[in-house]
Amino acid sequence: GHCCLYQEEKKMAILGDHILPEITPHIAVDSLELLPDPLTAYRKSLERFRSIAVEENWPSHGPQILDLNRRIDELLLHHTQREDNLVTLLTDSAAPLTCYEVSQSLFDLKQLDDFAGWLAASETLAHLRSLVNDGRAFEEEECGVFRYRVERTST
Fold first, then answer.
1. Burial class, 63, CB count within 10 angstroms (exposed 0-12 / middle 13-18 / buried 19+)
2. What are phi and psi of 59, to 5 degrees?
3. Which residues have a Cβ under 8 Å from the Cβ of 132 and sit 6 or more positions away?
4. How wide is the angle at C-alpha 99 spanned by C-alphas 17 and 32, nearest 5°?
5. Exposure string (b/e) for 128-140, b if CB count within 10 Å is 16 or more?
6. Which residue in 27, 28, 40, 66 could disulfide with 122, CB within 3.0 to 4.6 Å?
7. 3-state SS of the chain?
8. Nearest-CA neighbor of 100 among 30, 148, 139, 137?
9. Nearest Cα to 39, choosing from 101, 128, 104?
10. 89-129 pLDDT, tens per residue?
11. Which residues contact 119 (CB under 8 A, 6 or more apart)?
12. pLDDT of 25-61, one tens digit each?
């Protein structure tokens, strides 16, 4: 998770990696699964941030964010679009896909080092878990391998 600090009297927030001005924070399912659906938790925390009066902010990377609510909107839209792309990918697939297979379609994994590949896969898994928890996708396990699919509609 990410941590923010807020000083109410000065209406100042240290945003850390929670809200970044130019890139999206890395949201991932951790190996201990302390938070089984981190993306939904992240979205809720962004929504809660709207109610805080922040006049000055300090992200951990980059300059201050001039319009914090607009940036929150951009981050929420990014994750919605990513999930919509995943639903399309799963719909178009002839068979259920592993997280790695889904990651391959989102990121050029051959161009990434091992750590960046892990970041890509863990972020993909966070999106897949969110889709499963929302009922937009289904997770199947066979012999320890998890695959993801959407409900097929008959035509």
1. exposed
2. -75, 160
3. 138, 139, 148
4. 55
5. bbbbbeeebbeee
6. 28
7. CCCCEEECCCCEEEEECCCCCCCCCCCCCCCCCCCCCHHHHHHHHHHHHCCCCCCEEEECCCCCCCCHHHHHHHHHHHHHHHHHHHHHHHHHCCCCEEHHHHHHHHCCHHHCCHHHHHHHHHHHHHHHHHHHHCCCCEEEEECCEEEEECCCCCC
8. 148
9. 128
10. 999 999 999 999 999 988 888 888 999 988 999 999 999 99
11. 26, 28
12. 999 887 666 677 899 999 999 999 888 999 999 999 9
Is residue 77 a contact partner of residue 96, using CB atoms and an 8 Å limit? Answer: no
Place of tokens 């300090």: 58
Q: Which of 34, 37, 3, 33 is nearest to 136 (CA)?
A: 37
Which residue shows structure tokens 């990410």? 2
Radius of gyration of the chain (CA): 17
pTM passes above 0.85: yes
Both tokens of 121, joined, read 């896969």
